[in-house]
Amino acid sequence: METSSERPRGSRRAWWGRLAAGLTVIVVLIVLVARFSLVPGFGSLFGEDTRDRSGPALLKSIQDMDRYEAAVGNFQVVVDLEKDAALLPDAIRGTRTLYVGAGTVSGYVDFGALAEGNVTVNGDRTKVSVKLPHAVLGTAALDPERSYAVSKQRGLLDRLGDLFSDNPAGEQAVQKLAVQHIDEAARDSGLAERAERNTESMLEGLLRSLGFSEVTVAYG
Question: What DSSP string runs through 135-161?
Fold first, then answer.
Protein backbone atom coordinates (compact mmCIF):
# COMPACT_ATOMS: atom_id res chain seq x y z
CA MET A 1 0.00 0.00 0.00
CA GLU A 2 1.49 3.36 -1.10
CA THR A 3 1.70 6.12 1.40
CA SER A 4 0.87 9.74 0.65
CA SER A 5 4.59 10.70 0.85
CA GLU A 6 5.68 8.12 -1.82
CA ARG A 7 3.14 9.16 -4.47
CA PRO A 8 4.33 12.81 -4.84
CA ARG A 9 7.95 11.66 -5.02
CA GLY A 10 7.18 9.22 -7.82
CA SER A 11 5.13 11.80 -9.69
CA ARG A 12 7.97 14.31 -9.43
CA ARG A 13 10.40 11.81 -10.92
CA ALA A 14 8.04 11.05 -13.78
CA TRP A 15 7.59 14.78 -14.42
CA TRP A 16 11.34 15.39 -14.55
CA GLY A 17 11.76 12.41 -16.86
CA ARG A 18 9.15 13.72 -19.27
CA LEU A 19 10.74 17.19 -19.16
CA ALA A 20 14.22 15.80 -19.92
CA ALA A 21 12.87 13.68 -22.78
CA GLY A 22 11.03 16.66 -24.21
CA LEU A 23 14.13 18.88 -24.07
CA THR A 24 16.18 16.15 -25.76
CA VAL A 25 13.67 15.90 -28.59
CA ILE A 26 13.67 19.69 -29.04
CA VAL A 27 17.49 19.83 -29.17
CA VAL A 28 17.61 16.99 -31.71
CA LEU A 29 15.01 18.72 -33.87
CA ILE A 30 16.94 22.01 -33.77
CA VAL A 31 20.17 20.26 -34.74
CA LEU A 32 18.50 18.39 -37.62
CA VAL A 33 16.80 21.52 -38.93
CA ALA A 34 20.03 23.54 -38.76
CA ARG A 35 22.19 20.73 -40.16
CA PHE A 36 20.04 19.84 -43.17
CA SER A 37 18.44 23.27 -43.74
CA LEU A 38 14.92 21.88 -43.39
CA VAL A 39 13.60 25.38 -42.70
CA PRO A 40 14.95 28.12 -45.05
CA GLY A 41 17.00 30.69 -43.18
CA PHE A 42 16.97 28.75 -39.93
CA GLY A 43 20.44 27.26 -40.38
CA SER A 44 22.03 30.69 -40.60
CA LEU A 45 21.13 31.28 -36.94
CA PHE A 46 23.74 28.69 -35.96
CA GLY A 47 26.20 29.38 -38.78
CA GLU A 48 29.83 30.23 -38.23
CA ASP A 49 30.69 33.91 -38.52
CA THR A 50 34.31 34.73 -39.41
CA ARG A 51 35.60 38.20 -38.71
CA ASP A 52 39.02 39.57 -39.58
CA ARG A 53 40.10 41.82 -36.69
CA SER A 54 43.71 42.13 -37.83
CA GLY A 55 45.38 45.51 -37.59
CA PRO A 56 46.91 47.30 -40.56
CA ALA A 57 50.22 46.04 -41.96
CA LEU A 58 53.16 48.18 -40.89
CA LEU A 59 56.06 48.96 -43.20
CA LYS A 60 59.22 48.13 -41.26
CA SER A 61 61.88 48.76 -43.89
CA ILE A 62 62.60 48.97 -47.62
CA GLN A 63 65.69 47.50 -49.23
CA ASP A 64 66.92 48.25 -52.73
CA MET A 65 67.58 45.06 -54.68
CA ASP A 66 70.85 44.87 -56.58
CA ARG A 67 70.46 41.32 -57.75
CA TYR A 68 69.09 39.80 -60.91
CA GLU A 69 66.87 36.79 -60.30
CA ALA A 70 67.57 34.65 -63.33
CA ALA A 71 65.89 31.35 -62.45
CA VAL A 72 63.29 29.95 -60.06
CA GLY A 73 62.87 26.29 -59.16
CA ASN A 74 59.65 24.72 -57.87
CA PHE A 75 60.13 21.86 -55.44
CA GLN A 76 58.00 19.48 -53.40
CA VAL A 77 59.08 17.20 -50.56
CA VAL A 78 57.27 14.75 -48.28
CA VAL A 79 58.52 15.06 -44.69
CA ASP A 80 57.95 12.12 -42.33
CA LEU A 81 58.97 13.29 -38.85
CA GLU A 82 58.71 10.93 -35.88
CA LYS A 83 59.60 11.68 -32.27
CA ASP A 84 59.67 8.84 -29.73
CA ALA A 85 60.15 8.71 -25.97
CA ALA A 86 62.92 6.47 -24.70
CA LEU A 87 60.95 4.40 -22.19
CA LEU A 88 57.32 4.95 -23.21
CA PRO A 89 55.30 3.38 -26.03
CA ASP A 90 54.15 5.56 -28.91
CA ALA A 91 50.55 5.34 -27.73
CA ILE A 92 51.55 7.14 -24.52
CA ARG A 93 54.24 9.56 -25.66
CA GLY A 94 55.34 10.20 -29.21
CA THR A 95 54.39 12.04 -32.36
CA ARG A 96 54.57 11.34 -36.06
CA THR A 97 53.69 13.91 -38.73
CA LEU A 98 53.49 13.37 -42.47
CA TYR A 99 53.80 16.73 -44.22
CA VAL A 100 53.90 17.76 -47.86
CA GLY A 101 56.01 20.88 -48.35
CA ALA A 102 55.98 22.80 -51.62
CA GLY A 103 58.13 25.84 -52.22
CA THR A 104 60.35 27.80 -54.55
CA VAL A 105 64.04 28.65 -54.63
CA SER A 106 65.43 31.51 -56.70
CA GLY A 107 68.85 31.66 -58.30
CA TYR A 108 70.28 35.15 -58.68
CA VAL A 109 73.42 37.09 -59.53
CA ASP A 110 74.41 39.96 -57.26
CA PHE A 111 75.15 43.12 -59.25
CA GLY A 112 75.55 45.26 -56.14
CA ALA A 113 79.25 44.49 -55.65
CA LEU A 114 80.33 45.22 -59.22
CA ALA A 115 83.07 47.82 -59.69
CA GLU A 116 84.46 49.61 -62.75
CA GLY A 117 87.01 46.88 -63.30
CA ASN A 118 84.27 44.32 -63.81
CA VAL A 119 83.30 45.87 -67.16
CA THR A 120 85.87 46.55 -69.88
CA VAL A 121 85.21 48.06 -73.32
CA ASN A 122 87.63 48.28 -76.27
CA GLY A 123 88.54 51.54 -77.94
CA ASP A 124 86.02 51.50 -80.79
CA ARG A 125 83.25 50.22 -78.49
CA THR A 126 82.62 47.03 -80.40
CA LYS A 127 83.72 44.56 -77.72
CA VAL A 128 82.70 44.40 -74.07
CA SER A 129 83.73 42.02 -71.33
CA VAL A 130 81.75 41.60 -68.10
CA LYS A 131 82.99 39.71 -65.05
CA LEU A 132 80.31 38.68 -62.58
CA PRO A 133 80.20 36.83 -59.25
CA HIS A 134 78.85 33.32 -59.36
CA ALA A 135 75.11 32.90 -59.01
CA VAL A 136 73.83 31.99 -55.57
CA LEU A 137 70.59 30.47 -54.32
CA GLY A 138 68.09 32.07 -52.00
CA THR A 139 66.39 30.30 -49.11
CA ALA A 140 63.42 28.14 -49.95
CA ALA A 141 60.07 29.90 -49.56
CA LEU A 142 57.24 27.54 -48.64
CA ASP A 143 53.93 28.03 -50.40
CA PRO A 144 51.13 27.80 -47.79
CA GLU A 145 48.57 27.12 -50.51
CA ARG A 146 50.38 23.96 -51.62
CA SER A 147 51.86 22.80 -48.29
CA TYR A 148 49.78 20.73 -45.90
CA ALA A 149 49.87 18.04 -43.22
CA VAL A 150 48.73 14.66 -44.51
CA SER A 151 48.45 13.00 -41.10
CA LYS A 152 49.32 13.60 -37.46
CA GLN A 153 49.68 10.89 -34.86
CA ARG A 154 50.15 11.84 -31.20
CA GLY A 155 50.39 9.87 -28.01
CA LEU A 156 48.06 10.38 -25.06
CA LEU A 157 50.42 12.69 -23.18
CA ASP A 158 51.03 14.76 -26.31
CA ARG A 159 47.29 15.12 -26.85
CA LEU A 160 46.85 16.29 -23.28
CA GLY A 161 49.68 18.78 -23.77
CA ASP A 162 47.95 20.14 -26.87
CA LEU A 163 45.05 21.25 -24.67
CA PHE A 164 47.35 23.78 -22.99
CA SER A 165 49.39 24.74 -26.03
CA ASP A 166 48.96 27.99 -27.93
CA ASN A 167 49.46 26.10 -31.18
CA PRO A 168 48.33 22.47 -30.76
CA ALA A 169 48.69 21.80 -34.49
CA GLY A 170 52.12 23.38 -34.67
CA GLU A 171 54.08 22.41 -37.75
CA GLN A 172 57.22 24.46 -37.22
CA ALA A 173 59.47 21.40 -37.01
CA VAL A 174 58.25 19.79 -40.23
CA GLN A 175 58.24 23.14 -42.02
CA LYS A 176 61.90 23.71 -41.10
CA LEU A 177 62.74 20.22 -42.34
CA ALA A 178 60.85 20.86 -45.57
CA VAL A 179 62.84 24.06 -46.15
CA GLN A 180 66.08 22.23 -45.40
CA HIS A 181 65.33 19.39 -47.82
CA ILE A 182 64.21 21.78 -50.56
CA ASP A 183 67.40 23.83 -50.14
CA GLU A 184 69.46 20.65 -50.47
CA ALA A 185 67.55 19.59 -53.56
CA ALA A 186 68.02 23.04 -55.11
CA ARG A 187 71.80 22.85 -54.66
CA ASP A 188 71.87 19.53 -56.51
CA SER A 189 69.44 20.58 -59.25
CA GLY A 190 71.77 22.80 -61.29
CA LEU A 191 69.62 25.84 -60.55
CA ALA A 192 72.64 28.10 -59.94
CA GLU A 193 74.19 27.11 -63.27
CA ARG A 194 70.86 27.76 -64.98
CA ALA A 195 70.75 31.22 -63.39
CA GLU A 196 74.24 31.99 -64.74
CA ARG A 197 73.29 30.93 -68.27
CA ASN A 198 70.13 33.03 -68.16
CA THR A 199 72.03 36.05 -66.84
CA GLU A 200 74.60 35.66 -69.60
CA SER A 201 71.87 35.51 -72.24
CA MET A 202 70.18 38.58 -70.79
CA LEU A 203 73.39 40.63 -70.77
CA GLU A 204 74.34 39.54 -74.28
CA GLY A 205 70.99 40.61 -75.64
CA LEU A 206 71.09 43.91 -73.77
CA LEU A 207 74.66 44.82 -74.75
CA ARG A 208 74.23 43.79 -78.38
CA SER A 209 71.19 46.04 -78.57
CA LEU A 210 73.51 48.88 -77.45
CA GLY A 211 75.77 48.30 -80.45
CA PHE A 212 78.40 45.84 -79.17
CA SER A 213 79.15 43.10 -81.67
CA GLU A 214 81.16 40.90 -79.29
CA VAL A 215 80.06 40.28 -75.72
CA THR A 216 81.97 38.17 -73.20
CA VAL A 217 80.47 37.26 -69.81
CA ALA A 218 82.63 35.46 -67.26
CA TYR A 219 82.03 34.34 -63.68
CA GLY A 220 84.39 34.13 -60.76
Answer: PEE---EE-TTT-EEEEEEE-HHHHHH
Please tell me what DSSP assigns to residue 9.
H
pLDDT at 168: 46
Residues 6+ apart with CB under 8 A from 43: 33, 34, 35, 37
- Give CA separation, 166 vs 7, 30, 55, in Å: 55, 33, 20
pLDDT digits (tens, 9 = 90+) for 182-192: 999 999 999 99
Closest CA to 140 of 77, 199, 66: 77
Dihedral sign computed on CA atoms, order 201, 202, 205, 211 = negative
Q: How far apart are CA 115 and CA 110, in angstroms?
A: 12
